[in-house]
Amino acid sequence: MGRRKRSYRQVDGILPLDKPVGISSNEALQQVKRLYKAQKAGHTGSLDPIASGLLLICLGEATKVSPFLLEADKHYHTLARLGVRTETGDAEGAVVEECPVGEYSAADIEQALERFRGEIQQVPPMYSALKHKGVRLYELARQGVEVQRQPRTVHIYELKVLERGPDTLSLDIQCSKGTYIRTLVEDLGEVLGCGAHVAALRRVGVGPYTEQDMVSLEELNALAEQDRSALEARLRPIDSALADWPAVRLDGELSYFVKSGQAVWVPGAPSSGMVRMYDDQDLFLGAGRILDDGRVAPKRLIKGA
User: Which of 87, 131, 217, 277 is most buried as measured by Cβ atoms within 10 A of its Cβ?
Assistant: First the structure.
């Protein structure tokens, strides 16, 4: 007998998953997709297996807003181990150098951190998913090949010490998309003169979502066995991804034209930027952008709205 075919269904919403250490982001995604029996699912920014925390999983029509979440700012807690450099910049890599850790004062640490606040240039690590001539950098790194990488501009909005040990620094980091925490920690170790690597990493914020929004796989599995309606209730609405954007409301006629892909004049709309669009029944229509002439144009429409 053949294997029974799974029955999938249309499920729309965003799950702020608390990804545990030890599994990849794709493994977590597939578990969630099976639990919800969702036809379509994707995540918005990978976490390495050694990292935990907020992994946003978009189901169904919510995948249409995932590009905006990929662009969102991020918030991390990381434990930096001083005095040890590793091949990968984190605890998974082989140790390549050990150095004595100096007796740094609080002022010394603060002075070092200040160099990384604001707009900075980062060189992406070799152990990353970026591509060089079609090949992932981490694949080249595993072959012992190192290629030149161009520095990229990132923003560190907040960088502070949460806790300090003899050879560790627990850091709170709020940053722009594209920031490599491993690189930040390694560069901090260079400034301090002792080297460093990421011993632990937890993502606690992405865009409008915070640590308080997260749901664990254990909770989801328990709900799937007991109460599927409660499982559905853990999903956040699609427009929650754009909660920081201004909202515009369209009457019946304007909604019709927008859903047909046309730009419209909306009284009281912002003069520029991106907006959330709703009809006169407060139904979320999708993401829009303000054109140069002031009209609201649909950018991503939500099917069924």
Answer: 277
